[in-house]
Amino acid sequence: MSAQPLSSNDNDAPITPITPKEGAPASTRKLPPPEKPSDVRRRSHVILSFWLIVLILGLPIWWKTTTIYRADLPLQEMLEWADGKACRPVFPLRISIQATSLQDQEAQNLLRLTQHALDDLNDFAGHHLRLQLGDEKLDSADNGSALIIRLTPGEGTTATLDPYEPILDITYPPNTIPSPTASSSPLATYIASQLRTTFAEEQATISYLLSTNSMPSEHRPLGLSPETTESLAKRTTRSLKYAPTYHLTFSLFTSGPLPSSWNIEGAIDEYMKPVLEVLSPIHNFTIDTQVQLYASPGVQNQILNKEDLSSFINAAEWPLSPSIGGAPTINFIVFIGNQTIANPSQDSPTSQSWLIPQWGTVYLLSLPDDTTHVAAATLKQPLLTFTSHLLSLTGTPESGSLPLRLSTLARIRSADLLLRASSTLGSLARLAMALPSISIPSSVADGVTKTMSHLRLACDNLGGTEGLAHARIAEAEAERAFFEKSMVGQLYFPDEHKIAVYLPLLGPVAVPLVMGLINEIKAWRKRRRERAEKGAEKKEQ
Amino acid sequence: MRQLFSFVLLSLVSLSSFFVSASAAAADYHEQLVLRPLPLSALLASFNFRSNTSLSEFEAHNFRFFPRSLGQILQHAGTQELHLRFSLGRWDSESWGARPWDGAREGGTGVELWAWLQAATDEEADHKWLTLTNALSGLFCASLNFIDGTRTTRPVMSFQPEGDHLNTTAVDTHLLYGVLPHEVVCTENLTPFLKLLPCKGKAGIATLLDGHKLFDASWQSMAIDVRPICPAGGECVLQIELTIDMVLDIDRSKRPRDNPIPRPPPGHELPCNTSKPYHSHDTCFPTDHQANQDWTLSQIFGRTMKGTCPLTDPTVPPVCLQVPNSRSVYHSDGVLEKKNLDRVSRCFEIKPDVNFEIVLPTPDDESAVLVKPETPLLYAERSFTGHGQERGGVQTILRNPSPDTEVEFIYMESLPWFMRVYLHTMSARLQGQSAKDDALIKEVYYRPAVDRARGTQLEVRMRVPPASTVFLTYDFEKSILRYTEYPPDANRGFDVAAAVITILSPAAYNLRTTSLLCSLPTPDFSMPYNVIIFTSTAIALAFGGMFNILVRRFVAADEGPEVGLAVLKKRIKERVGALVEKIKKDKGQKIPYEARNKSGKANDSGVETEVIKE
Prior knowledge:
The complex is a heterodimer.
Chain A (H helix, E strand, L loop, with lengths): L36 H30 L8 H9 L7 E8 L5 H18 L5 E7 L6 H4 L3 E7 L4 E4 L5 E6 L13 H13 L1 H13 L13 H13 L6 E10 L6 E2 L1 H16 L4 E9 L10 E2 L1 H6 L17 E8 L3 E2 L11 E4 L3 E6 L7 E2 L5 H14 L8 H33 L7 H19 L4 H18 L2 H4 L6 H46 L1
Chain B lengths: L1 H21 L6 E10 L3 E13 H5 L2 E2 L4 H9 L2 E11 L3 H4 L13 E9 L3 H19 L11 E2 L19 E8 L6 H9 L15 H4 L4 E11 L7 E13 H5 L40 E2 H5 L3 E2 L12 E3 L8 E2 L3 E5 L6 E5 L4 E2 L1 E3 L18 E7 L5 E10 L6 E9 L3 E12 L10 E7 L8 E9 L3 E11 L15 E3 L3 E6 L3 E4 L3 E3 L8 H25 L13 H24 L4 H16 L6
Parallel strand pairs in B: 1-12
Antiparallel strand pairs in B: 1-2, 2-9, 4-5, 4-8, 5-7, 6-7, 8-9, 10-17, 11-16, 12-15, 13-17, 14-15, 18-19, 19-24, 20-23, 20-26, 21-24, 22-23, 25-28, 26-27
InterPro entries (chain B): PIG-T
GO cellular component, one term (chain B): GPI-anchor transamidase complex
Pfam family, one (chain B): Gpi16
């Protein structure tokens, strides 16, 4: 301070010495010499530059190094998907009518009337049946129609579903063809009601799926009876989550040392392969088999009650580990033993097998004690049971002909996947909003973008195979984004922890800085006031 | 003894190969238990289970004798040959002699895994290795998933494939070796092991396996070996061999399970060596070795053996006992005893559904109680040298007991990265000589460690002349780990895996040293907070001083504001007085709240003015 050369040629008015305030004790102390204005200015600069460094350099660096990366998520859109506002699932089903014996005009008329009848019957907008006149040469695969109605003149009005093709054969007496002016016709009503019966299960399943998800009420179909809902709920919980590939494990368990081999390969080829091939457009299957001896069941009773069935599988000892490839495993177990299942209704024959929801099937096979090898023919009944249970485990509908059931399965699965992916998106959005300290890496944002684009595509192509493929991708991406490891893997820092780290440094540093600033502001205000007073005095003079 | 073992092994191999070529379905499984009493009242029990499956069945995922759970893992990870070891304890070769199976079915303490994987590139092999270790970890309830890059090496000289790899080239087959010395093997590893057997633990020799006895053993090793075998002219088979070797302490095993605490026997029951000159009624020199050689199977294993596994090859006797033929052994009914021609072993053929029990009474002839243990080809001992927390050394003492044969072997170490080996200090010298002898080391393969990425791999091909002892030594530096790299029990030390010694000549033989415990410099774990607080205080002091010098005005002592105790007292008095006055005022007349507040404020500012700016 004394190093400062005395600036005598300072033209500023010398600062008046600090006058003691009123009420202060009359001081006998000397007053410090007046401070030079350059010193005052320099002090202000020092304080100002410290604060500038803190604000311009320190704060941004602190912010940059401690901030958690959160990629931008389209939260609003994600919630819209979850609420069902973004997509209104509509399954337009085209149905061709082949009526070669009818005139074109008559056929058009019948079609119009049937469509009217259908529209009157239908109460659910999401599931729409649209009729069209089909060319005989085209079959269902070519023109994309879900069902072909083949009208042939006959004795009475009958309807039969073709068991191998998606064709509904309807015969009609020739006199029931509606006249061009008729506004209603018994034949049209009959066709409409037949169609409705055929698709009743699919409609019920899809409306059940929609109702269990958070769809807005205007899209929600009404009129599902409690019994239907219950049976649908049962069936949905029974079926496995959709996966492109399922792993089938066939196990032979026996409580003793025999039999120790079985011709399972031959039996599968003969009794199960045909169905697996039919299912191949929707699912792939991998198969393995094993023989396990000395496997005692979890229940030792001779007659198995309903309660025993759930504990029959000895999970602790039986090596039924799921496959490690990522595909869900369906277990089919043949247990060699003469146990029987107690049937609540005594009149029906005792059953041999039971289905474990989302897991597989157990079949009790009783064999003579000295059997060492189980032949393929012996395995026929078990494998046929497994096949039918496989269909219900994959969620295939129960009624209708097989091709219709499979095409329905594809539609139900795409709706299911679509809803699942949407609800995953919603959960992710809610999670991101609920936890502000969770990091959101860019891969999650990518996943969300991909999910939404595929969801959009799936929504536009619902009912077709393309829709299923897109829904599958969307669901996989959504799951991947939701279960991103780096989101949950971050360390948890409690607030006490942060205080313990920050306070020892920031406390002692901040106190002089803040006090310096406060004093400086006070001194500056005082100087201003004094200057103003002096100015007033000068004016008075 | 080793010849005997190899004889048994050979006969088994020839038998099995015969059956494979004769009829694929007849005998794809067999099991055998070999019991061999050892000196110092120990008993070696070797369980061996072997099953075959044809490669075509394996690839079609049809599992019969081969466990499905393991088969899936092998297929998923592209594994061609797999060796997994769970070991505990130390084989006392000084008194027990050569190791069972010539040391081929044992590992170092903890878990050891090596496998030949089929992969086009090293990265792919690493990826498959990761899959394999993680899957095996789940299957065997072991921490195998901790075998990461730092614990994995690719041995160059030490391991050779046991199976026949026909249609694969050396380029796309990768050998990876991982070891977890810290893993404690226990019952949870035995249960999945038993599940892999076709007869589980329900019939045959596996009924004797009990976790209480197995893990009470002085030494035990569980091994799983999977290898493809291609007999000449026959179809290739995949063979899985499960082996459990354990050395039981007969004394300890005979203790009742409900009263396992050892108590000193009363004086008159002590087995004393009466040949000592000082033996008297109050002085006892305990007898060694020959004592306690009477036992029964149910005493040793806690239960009798329940029949035979019906799947097993009937031509292989399920139980063999290696005691001199002159010794009498009693057995239960329905058992056929067959003494072998070598005069030191006998086998028992057991009917199915017969509870098998053997009784070895106290021998009459003291000289023919045991088969004399065979001298191993090499003795090896490894220990740490040096002191302090910064540097250390490793010394391995290798002793060749043979009077006339030189032993050549490969010594392999896979050391953790935090032991930084100084390779230039590695030297081998003969006992009795101070200078190092370069002729002892023939070849060295060394792959240095990379911090936090991979460990040191050291393979040394060396020889030990007949009847001599070689000291192999090297020094290393201990590195300081990062705060988060220390395990919770850091002061216990860090396990260093056993060294693997593969003897090339005169015969194939394997042995492993014990694992070591390396203590690293371990910090006080409240250190980070201490550091934060110390540095923060220093910075705050420096900053505060500098800042004050820059912004304060310095005046003479009598020019500044008054400071001291008197000033403080006066100020406090003033404040208290003002407060008391205010309260009196409040009581006297009801002043609205705001006004009171204002007056308070005014009062406050009045006092504030006395705090003179410095």
